[in-house]
Amino acid sequence: xxxxxxxxxxxxxxxxxxxxxxxxxxxxxxxxxxxxxxxxxxxxxxxxxxxxxxxxxxxxxxxxxxxxxxxxxxxxxxxxxxxxxxxxxxxxxxxxxxxxxxxxxxxxxxxxxxxxxxxxxxxxxxxxxxxxxxxxxxxxxxxxxxxxxxxxxxxxxxxxxxxxxxxxxxxxxxxxxxxxxxxxxxxxxxxxxxxxxxxxxxxxxxxxxxxxxxxxxxxxxxxxxxxxxxxxxxxxxxxxxxxxxxxxxxxxxxxxxxxxxxxxxxxxxxxxxxxxxxxxxxxxxxxxxxxxxxxxxxxxxxxxxxxxxxxxxxxxxxxxxxxxxxxxxxxxxxxxxxxxxxxxxxxxxxxxxxxxxxxxxxxxxxxxxxxxxxxxxxxxxxxxxxxxxxxxxxxxxxxx
Length: 400
Fold this sequence. Notes:
CATH 2.40.50.100, Elongation Factor Tu (Ef-tu), domain 3, conserved putative lor/sdh protein from methanococcus maripaludis s2 fold, eight-stranded mixed sheet, rod-shaped, alpha+beta
């Protein structure tokens, strides 16, 4: 029993002695890295997801019924206006055309006969040598013969049109797709799509912008003398830069009330036919900012509730309170009256992101010393040091 009491007293003494040990002083200075902000000229692009589109695109539809008897193009190739593409069995339509021609000739013959009879009866009528009724009938017959000729001529035109519809030609220069019919397939007007053809040079590129940017693009559209040659460029699906530059063609008529966005169409030359309808690409709009701009590493910018802040280092004199001086007399010789670095949190307006860097529109000035490392451990008024007693941690704007 005595041994247990002695052991308990011994352990308690050890714990009491450990508690009385002096804790190491906490270093209030946060190690950081600083940079002096300088204005410089930067090149950047506003980027928008985009899709290529044809300026004109149509589905080729047959105008007559019949079997496909000929296909005269290579699928996916470039075709020219008026080029023969499909042939529909024309035998019935050729026969109808020949019959219409024959009927026209009969009508023309009847007209000649009616004209001769009318002339003869008109002459006899002058001398009262023929009954008035016969003369009137001759005039009416002549009029009917003339109308019959006109009707026969219209029949010939209709038969000729149907015969021409047996040959399907390209309505404009463009690229033709896969054929939807094969040789021998029977097609019907308005029900069968033969193929699709779309213009390929130039090519349209459509993208969506926020309505807030609409005045900027309207200004670019009306500015015929663009100061930058590469104002509009596109990145191909493989991230390569397309060699031709574009220009604004159309801004849509209305803003989408639900999304607050509007479509803009650019036009690009496409002589090599590298651009195809429906491709995904990225439109790059060359920045129009003039003069040097303030650029910071993105990790130096802190985002809080949709607002952006940076920490600016300032020199400050730290005063020691009398109570602290009584507890630590050495503090007077170490710190009192000496300048210390502290940080001031400043709200900034951010601009374009350029890789790992961020353009700052306002809130700070050239020459300010900005904390670029260790921002996560800071708050407004924190003491800092650049001695890097402990390696500064990263941090900054979300997504960096």
